[in-house]
């Protein structure tokens, strides 16, 4: 949570996440972001190539699609 929360507003954090995801993918480890709070953070995390997400924003999107 501490790394992903507010990632859209922090270029340094985004760079860190992107590098970490790249490194973990190089050793075939999937990366999931937890506790994603909003759409802007989610978009940046997708841009960083995370494999999946959990959290309030994800749940809200799932509820919109089932309605």
Short synopsis of the structure:
The protein is mainly alpha-helical and about 70 residues long.
How would you characterize this protein structure?
This protein is mainly alpha-helical. 54% of the residues lie in helices and 6% in strands. It has 3 helices and 2 strands, in the order αβαβα. It has a two-stranded parallel sheet with strand order 1-2. Helix 2 (39-47) links the parallel strand 1 and strand 2 (52-53).
Q: Beta-strand level of the residues, as a percent range?
A: 5-15%
- Largest sheet data: 2 strands, parallel
Number of strands: 2
- Please work out how many helical segments DSSP would assign: 3
Rg over CA atoms, rounded to whole Å, is 12 Å
Outline type: globular
Q: For the record, give the distance between the C-alpha atoms at the N and C termini, rounded to a whole number.
A: 28 Å
Uncertain parts? none
Order of helices and strands: HEHEH
Structural class: mainly alpha
**Average of pLDDT:** 93
Residue share in helices? Answer: 40-55%
| Lateral strand order in the biggest sheet | 1-2
């Amino acid at each position: 949570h501490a790394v992903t929360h507010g990632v859209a507003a922090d270029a340094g954090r985004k760079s860190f996440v992107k590098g970490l995801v790249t490194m973990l993918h190089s050793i075939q480890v999937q990366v999931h972001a937890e506790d994603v709070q909003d759409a802007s953070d989610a978009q940046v995390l997708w841009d960083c190539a995370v494999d999946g997400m959990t959290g309030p924003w994800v749940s809200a999107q799932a509820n919109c699609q089932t309605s």
